[in-house]
Specification:
With about 270 residues, the protein is mostly helical. About 75% of the residues lie in helices and about 0% in strands. The longest helix is centred in the last third of the chain and has 33 residues. It is a multi-pass membrane protein. This is Carbohydrate ABC transporter membrane protein 2, CUT1 family.
Protein backbone atom coordinates (compact mmCIF):
# COMPACT_ATOMS: atom_id res chain seq x y z
CA UNK A 1 0.00 0.00 0.00
CA UNK A 2 1.33 3.42 -0.99
CA UNK A 3 1.90 5.91 1.76
CA UNK A 4 0.92 9.52 1.23
CA UNK A 5 3.30 12.28 2.36
CA UNK A 6 0.99 13.10 5.29
CA UNK A 7 0.95 9.45 6.40
CA UNK A 8 4.72 9.27 6.14
CA UNK A 9 5.17 12.47 8.16
CA UNK A 10 2.74 11.23 10.83
CA UNK A 11 4.60 7.92 11.02
CA UNK A 12 7.96 9.64 11.47
CA UNK A 13 6.50 11.92 14.14
CA UNK A 14 5.20 8.91 16.08
CA UNK A 15 8.58 7.16 15.76
CA UNK A 16 10.41 10.31 16.83
CA UNK A 17 8.15 10.70 19.87
CA UNK A 18 8.76 7.07 20.82
CA UNK A 19 12.51 7.55 20.45
CA UNK A 20 12.43 10.66 22.65
CA UNK A 21 10.44 8.87 25.37
CA UNK A 22 12.87 5.93 25.26
CA UNK A 23 16.11 7.92 25.24
CA UNK A 24 15.15 10.87 27.47
CA UNK A 25 15.69 9.09 30.85
CA UNK A 26 19.23 8.10 29.86
CA UNK A 27 20.07 11.59 28.63
CA UNK A 28 18.68 13.17 31.82
CA UNK A 29 20.73 10.74 33.94
CA UNK A 30 23.92 11.59 32.06
CA UNK A 31 23.15 15.31 32.23
CA UNK A 32 22.42 15.30 35.97
CA UNK A 33 25.56 13.27 36.69
CA UNK A 34 27.64 16.33 35.70
CA UNK A 35 25.78 18.70 38.05
CA UNK A 36 26.95 19.90 41.44
CA UNK A 37 25.19 18.29 44.46
CA UNK A 38 23.06 21.37 45.14
CA UNK A 39 21.89 21.58 41.51
CA UNK A 40 20.68 17.97 41.34
CA UNK A 41 17.66 18.70 43.57
CA UNK A 42 17.11 22.37 42.70
CA UNK A 43 17.10 22.25 38.89
CA UNK A 44 15.03 20.22 36.40
CA UNK A 45 16.68 17.03 35.16
CA UNK A 46 16.61 18.25 31.55
CA UNK A 47 18.28 21.60 32.33
CA UNK A 48 21.90 21.50 31.08
CA UNK A 49 24.55 21.18 33.76
CA UNK A 50 26.30 24.50 34.38
CA UNK A 51 28.96 24.60 35.55
CA UNK A 52 29.96 21.09 34.48
CA UNK A 53 31.73 19.12 37.22
CA UNK A 54 33.52 15.77 37.19
CA UNK A 55 33.86 15.62 40.98
CA UNK A 56 30.89 13.25 41.26
CA UNK A 57 32.64 10.65 39.09
CA UNK A 58 35.95 11.09 40.89
CA UNK A 59 34.30 10.70 44.31
CA UNK A 60 32.24 7.63 43.45
CA UNK A 61 35.26 6.04 41.75
CA UNK A 62 37.73 6.63 44.59
CA UNK A 63 35.58 6.36 47.72
CA UNK A 64 33.16 3.54 46.82
CA UNK A 65 35.29 1.07 44.79
CA UNK A 66 33.22 1.55 41.66
CA UNK A 67 35.99 -0.03 39.60
CA UNK A 68 35.64 -3.24 41.62
CA UNK A 69 31.86 -3.27 41.26
CA UNK A 70 32.13 -2.83 37.50
CA UNK A 71 34.72 -5.61 37.28
CA UNK A 72 32.52 -8.00 39.28
CA UNK A 73 29.53 -7.22 37.04
CA UNK A 74 31.66 -7.70 33.94
CA UNK A 75 32.80 -11.14 35.11
CA UNK A 76 29.28 -12.12 36.17
CA UNK A 77 27.54 -10.93 33.00
CA UNK A 78 30.32 -12.14 30.69
CA UNK A 79 30.40 -15.71 32.01
CA UNK A 80 26.61 -16.00 32.10
CA UNK A 81 26.38 -14.66 28.54
CA UNK A 82 28.99 -17.12 27.25
CA UNK A 83 27.26 -20.01 29.01
CA UNK A 84 23.84 -19.00 27.72
CA UNK A 85 25.01 -18.76 24.12
CA UNK A 86 26.81 -22.13 24.20
CA UNK A 87 24.24 -24.22 26.08
CA UNK A 88 21.14 -22.53 24.63
CA UNK A 89 22.52 -23.22 21.14
CA UNK A 90 23.08 -26.89 21.92
CA UNK A 91 19.63 -27.32 23.45
CA UNK A 92 18.00 -25.37 20.60
CA UNK A 93 19.65 -27.66 18.06
CA UNK A 94 18.39 -30.73 19.90
CA UNK A 95 14.84 -29.40 20.15
CA UNK A 96 14.71 -27.92 16.67
CA UNK A 97 16.65 -30.30 14.41
CA UNK A 98 16.96 -33.68 16.13
CA UNK A 99 14.25 -36.31 16.55
CA UNK A 100 13.82 -38.29 19.76
CA UNK A 101 10.83 -39.61 21.76
CA UNK A 102 9.03 -36.95 23.78
CA UNK A 103 10.93 -34.07 22.19
CA UNK A 104 7.98 -31.72 21.78
CA UNK A 105 6.45 -32.56 25.17
CA UNK A 106 9.79 -31.96 26.86
CA UNK A 107 10.31 -28.68 25.02
CA UNK A 108 6.89 -27.24 25.77
CA UNK A 109 7.11 -28.41 29.38
CA UNK A 110 10.44 -26.65 29.74
CA UNK A 111 9.08 -23.57 28.00
CA UNK A 112 6.14 -23.50 30.43
CA UNK A 113 8.58 -22.72 33.25
CA UNK A 114 8.77 -19.18 31.82
CA UNK A 115 5.39 -18.60 33.46
CA UNK A 116 6.80 -19.31 36.93
CA UNK A 117 7.78 -16.02 38.67
CA UNK A 118 11.39 -15.70 39.73
CA UNK A 119 10.37 -15.08 43.33
CA UNK A 120 8.94 -18.62 43.52
CA UNK A 121 12.31 -20.26 42.81
CA UNK A 122 14.40 -17.75 44.75
CA UNK A 123 14.32 -19.52 48.13
CA UNK A 124 14.95 -23.05 46.73
CA UNK A 125 17.88 -21.73 44.68
CA UNK A 126 19.33 -20.02 47.73
CA UNK A 127 19.03 -23.21 49.80
CA UNK A 128 20.75 -25.23 47.06
CA UNK A 129 23.61 -22.72 46.87
CA UNK A 130 23.93 -22.77 50.66
CA UNK A 131 24.12 -26.57 50.77
CA UNK A 132 26.95 -26.52 48.22
CA UNK A 133 28.76 -23.73 50.08
CA UNK A 134 28.43 -21.27 47.19
CA UNK A 135 27.03 -18.28 49.07
CA UNK A 136 28.99 -15.09 48.36
CA UNK A 137 30.92 -16.70 45.48
CA UNK A 138 31.01 -16.17 41.73
CA UNK A 139 29.75 -19.73 41.20
CA UNK A 140 26.69 -18.99 43.31
CA UNK A 141 25.99 -15.94 41.16
CA UNK A 142 26.55 -17.64 37.82
CA UNK A 143 25.28 -21.23 38.04
CA UNK A 144 21.48 -20.61 38.13
CA UNK A 145 21.43 -18.97 34.67
CA UNK A 146 24.66 -20.07 32.97
CA UNK A 147 23.26 -23.27 31.42
CA UNK A 148 20.56 -21.69 29.30
CA UNK A 149 17.10 -20.30 29.89
CA UNK A 150 13.75 -21.16 28.29
CA UNK A 151 13.68 -17.81 26.51
CA UNK A 152 17.17 -18.21 25.05
CA UNK A 153 16.51 -21.78 23.88
CA UNK A 154 13.17 -20.81 22.35
CA UNK A 155 14.72 -17.82 20.55
CA UNK A 156 17.53 -19.84 18.94
CA UNK A 157 15.29 -22.84 18.20
CA UNK A 158 12.82 -20.70 16.27
CA UNK A 159 15.69 -19.25 14.24
CA UNK A 160 17.12 -22.69 13.50
CA UNK A 161 13.74 -23.75 12.14
CA UNK A 162 13.92 -21.02 9.48
CA UNK A 163 17.16 -22.46 8.03
CA UNK A 164 16.46 -24.87 5.13
CA UNK A 165 17.00 -28.53 6.01
CA UNK A 166 18.55 -29.08 2.58
CA UNK A 167 21.76 -27.45 3.83
CA UNK A 168 21.96 -29.92 6.70
CA UNK A 169 21.13 -32.85 4.43
CA UNK A 170 23.87 -31.85 1.98
CA UNK A 171 26.40 -31.67 4.80
CA UNK A 172 25.41 -35.11 6.07
CA UNK A 173 25.76 -36.57 2.56
CA UNK A 174 29.33 -35.22 2.57
CA UNK A 175 29.97 -37.13 5.79
CA UNK A 176 29.44 -34.39 8.40
CA UNK A 177 28.37 -35.48 11.86
CA UNK A 178 25.96 -33.76 14.21
CA UNK A 179 28.57 -31.52 15.83
CA UNK A 180 30.07 -30.59 12.46
CA UNK A 181 26.65 -29.66 11.08
CA UNK A 182 25.99 -27.47 14.10
CA UNK A 183 29.38 -25.73 14.17
CA UNK A 184 30.13 -25.40 10.44
CA UNK A 185 26.67 -25.06 8.89
CA UNK A 186 24.11 -23.69 11.34
CA UNK A 187 26.20 -21.44 13.56
CA UNK A 188 27.69 -19.32 10.73
CA UNK A 189 24.15 -18.72 9.46
CA UNK A 190 22.89 -17.91 12.97
CA UNK A 191 25.29 -15.16 13.94
CA UNK A 192 22.56 -12.47 14.01
CA UNK A 193 20.34 -14.36 16.47
CA UNK A 194 23.33 -15.40 18.61
CA UNK A 195 24.44 -11.76 18.80
CA UNK A 196 20.90 -10.81 19.78
CA UNK A 197 20.81 -13.47 22.50
CA UNK A 198 24.23 -12.40 23.78
CA UNK A 199 23.19 -8.75 23.91
CA UNK A 200 19.89 -9.43 25.68
CA UNK A 201 21.54 -11.80 28.16
CA UNK A 202 24.41 -9.44 28.95
CA UNK A 203 22.11 -6.46 29.53
CA UNK A 204 19.65 -8.47 31.62
CA UNK A 205 22.41 -9.98 33.76
CA UNK A 206 24.19 -6.66 34.15
CA UNK A 207 20.98 -5.05 35.45
CA UNK A 208 20.03 -7.92 37.79
CA UNK A 209 19.62 -6.85 41.41
CA UNK A 210 17.51 -9.42 43.29
CA UNK A 211 19.63 -12.57 42.91
CA UNK A 212 22.99 -10.86 43.66
CA UNK A 213 21.32 -9.22 46.67
CA UNK A 214 20.27 -12.62 48.02
CA UNK A 215 23.36 -14.71 47.26
CA UNK A 216 26.20 -12.24 47.99
CA UNK A 217 27.02 -10.30 51.13
CA UNK A 218 30.57 -8.98 50.71
CA UNK A 219 32.53 -6.50 48.62
CA UNK A 220 34.51 -9.32 46.96
CA UNK A 221 31.50 -10.25 44.78
CA UNK A 222 29.32 -7.14 44.96
CA UNK A 223 28.07 -6.17 41.51
CA UNK A 224 27.42 -2.67 40.26
CA UNK A 225 23.65 -2.74 40.88
CA UNK A 226 24.28 -3.49 44.56
CA UNK A 227 26.99 -0.85 44.67
CA UNK A 228 24.56 1.78 43.38
CA UNK A 229 21.77 0.70 45.74
CA UNK A 230 24.19 0.98 48.69
CA UNK A 231 24.53 4.71 47.97
CA UNK A 232 20.88 5.19 48.93
CA UNK A 233 20.56 5.38 52.70
CA UNK A 234 17.53 4.97 54.94
CA UNK A 235 17.31 8.62 55.90
CA UNK A 236 19.36 10.40 53.25
CA UNK A 237 20.66 9.71 49.76
CA UNK A 238 23.57 11.09 47.81
CA UNK A 239 21.77 11.58 44.54
CA UNK A 240 24.71 13.20 42.78
CA UNK A 241 26.78 10.07 43.47
CA UNK A 242 23.93 7.74 42.54
CA UNK A 243 23.54 9.49 39.17
CA UNK A 244 27.29 9.42 38.53
CA UNK A 245 27.44 5.70 39.37
CA UNK A 246 24.41 5.02 37.16
CA UNK A 247 26.10 6.87 34.29
CA UNK A 248 29.24 4.75 34.71
CA UNK A 249 27.16 1.57 34.80
CA UNK A 250 25.32 2.66 31.67
CA UNK A 251 28.41 3.12 29.49
CA UNK A 252 29.27 -0.61 29.02
CA UNK A 253 25.68 -1.31 27.95
CA UNK A 254 25.83 1.43 25.34
CA UNK A 255 29.08 0.01 23.98
CA UNK A 256 27.62 -3.51 23.80
CA UNK A 257 24.53 -2.29 21.97
CA UNK A 258 26.52 -0.23 19.46
CA UNK A 259 28.76 -3.21 18.70
CA UNK A 260 25.90 -5.63 18.08
CA UNK A 261 23.06 -3.43 16.83
CA UNK A 262 23.68 -4.42 13.21
CA UNK A 263 23.24 -8.11 14.06
CA UNK A 264 20.12 -7.40 16.13
CA UNK A 265 18.44 -5.53 13.28
CA UNK A 266 19.45 -8.25 10.82
CA UNK A 267 18.03 -11.00 13.01
CA UNK A 268 14.69 -9.18 13.27
CA UNK A 269 14.61 -8.70 9.48
CA UNK A 270 15.51 -12.31 8.72
CA UNK A 271 12.99 -13.83 11.12
CA UNK A 272 10.26 -11.99 9.23
CA UNK A 273 11.18 -13.69 5.93
CA UNK A 274 9.94 -17.10 4.77
Amino acid sequence: MKRTPITRIALYLVLFAGAVVSVAPYLMTLNSAFKEPAQVLTTPAWQPAFPVTFDNFAQVWSEYDMAGFLLHSLIYAGVVTAGQVVFSTMAAYAFGRMSFPGRDALFWGYLATMMVPQIVTLVPLFLIMREFGLIDTYLGLILPTAFGTPYGIFLVRQYFRTIPRDLESAARIDGAGTLTVLVRVLLPLSRPILATLATITFITTWNTLLWPLIVTNGDATRVVTLGISALKGQYSSQYHLILAAAALALLPLIVIFLLFQRHIVRSIALTGLK
